[in-house]
Amino acid sequence: MARDDVRHVSALHRGAREPLREGDGGFATHVVVDGGSLLRLPESYDDVSAAPLLCGGVIGHRSLDVCGVLPGQRLGLYGFGASARVVLQLARHRGCHVYVATRSETERASALALGAEWAGGYDDAPPERLDAAITFAPVGRVVIAALSALERGGTVAINAIHLDEIPAFDYGALFWERGIRSVSNFTRDDARAFLELAPSVPIQTKVEVYNLADANVALERLKHGRVSGAAVLAMPD
């Protein structure tokens, strides 16, 4: 659908008298959006391989900026799903040294294959102090593990919209001007900048494709950590 067509349909929808039903949204084959909210996908990616760039990839890019890591510095990634996979490649492209902590031995191997200099478990201390870290697991104790691995003045960016709770911890882990920041969203400019950058890295995505009718299967596998990379729902013809 062309940009002008999208704006036209969106205007008709906004002018309709019938309000949106509570059940609208979620998984659907079609969606109406305002033309100003559309993003141009890189032509070098097909639809399936481009899917992980959106949301997970863009918010990962935002997290990399929020944590403040600079070229040549050491970055820790705590959790290694679809978003972290993108961040590792972005950080390597930026010239950072990347250290990955994850409970999955398979994902540790994937991280090393993508250029991580070290991969271990959440309770393992990286071989060197980190200048910055990003946590992807929605578990508070992982935030503390990342914070405890930081060099003075470093920042932990929490790439999660939900966190169970942050347990009590020794103030020494936060002292020397270490910091914790949340990453709650991204702007359209963030998204445009990332999508322009992705092909030049180039970002390699990893997907598991499911039919739309199998969305609950994908969610169940995701819940139990059985998805390697990103789960992508394919629309029916």
Characterization of the model:
- By secondary structure, the protein is of the alpha/beta class.
- Among the domains are: 55-182, NAD(P)-binding Rossmann-like Domain (Rossmann fold, 3-Layer(aba) Sandwich); 206-237, no CATH class.
- Helices cover 33% and strands 18% of the residues.
- The chain is built from eight helices and eight strands.
- The protein has helices at residues 3-15, 47-50, 56-67, 82-94, 105-113, 140-148, 188-197, 215-223; strands at residues 74-78, 97-101, 118-120, 130-135, 150-158, 179-182, 207-211, 230-234.
- The strands form two sheets. The chain has a six-stranded parallel sheet, sandwiched between helices. It has a two-stranded parallel sheet with strand order 7-8.
- Helix 3 crosses helix 4 (82-94).
- The longest helix has 13 residues, at 3-15.
- 34% of the residues are buried.
- Mean pLDDT is 89; it is low at 1-18.
Shape: globular
On the 0-100 scale, what is the average pLDDT? Answer: 89
Strand adjacency order, main sheet: 3-2-1-4-5-6
Q: What is the number of E strands? A: 8
Order of helices and strands: HHHEHEHEEHEEHEHE
Q: pLDDT under 50 segments (min length 5)?
A: 1-18
CATH class of the domain at 55-182: Alpha Beta
CATH homology superfamily name of the domain at 55-182: NAD(P)-binding Rossmann-like Domain
